[in-house]
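SAMPLE LOG
Freezer: B-3
Tube label: C17
Construct: single chain, 285 aa
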Amino acid sequence: MPQTNVHVQNVNEIKSNVVPVWCPGCGDYGVLAAIYRACVIMDLDLKSTVIVSGIGCSGRLPIFTKCYGFHGVHGRVLPTATGVKLANPKLTVIAVGGDGDGLAIGGGHFPHAARRNVDITYIMMDNSVYGLTKGQGSPTTAPEFTLKALPYGVQEENLNPVALSLAYDVSYVARVFSGAIDQMTDLFVKAIQHKGFSFVHAISPCTAFNDTYKFYRERVVPIPAEHDVHNKKSALDLWQTKGKVYLGTFYEDNRLDMGTTFQKLSETVQSKGKGTMERLFDQFT
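STRUCTURE (predicted):
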């Protein structure tokens, strides 16, 4: 990586020369704006920050920043981000991807990133539709939603990303909404600062094929101030509350991350194996 640090004073210094091409009103603009702000608040070094993306509309996000970026293949955002972080633990690694990318073909990678507790932040930009391919149902499309490609709605129950992340024992779990950028910025900062695998479920409506802004504005509420973020049972109760969609930090657990675990293992092996190679060589001299 280049040695010259690049710190920024305002969001305009983070923006690349590539202009975003999402549809007007797309929730992804809000996610991008919150990432810009989080970078400024945290004084992140852009030369040491990597944004890894999957496919779909959200996959374009890295090119709109001056951070290093990696646009991966379908469903592989988490193993790619894991590889980047483990190859260079000093990097700040942010993974972004859609609900289809992360919970359909990429769904098998989610629990393993969680159990490894690799120190990356995963922002799932959930519009509950395959917007880039013109409106098919995704794993998070609720039965009550009707789409242009599904006038009678989906016939399956939808997956709940927060419920899955809690079941997988993700060490930091939060939910944000593109209609509340200030809160989204604050939670992105918390997620990036968390030492371990952070998952942020970002409700990011698709104005072209599944405009859910009104639906969520009528239902989103902040997580109660008295909620204990270290109490998983309480977190599970929150996501199951009918008629409300809670925003905020659901759960946080400060267990060792994968990089620290590997470092400790390396030190143990080296201390126990001191002189081993010399003894082996002596057998053949």
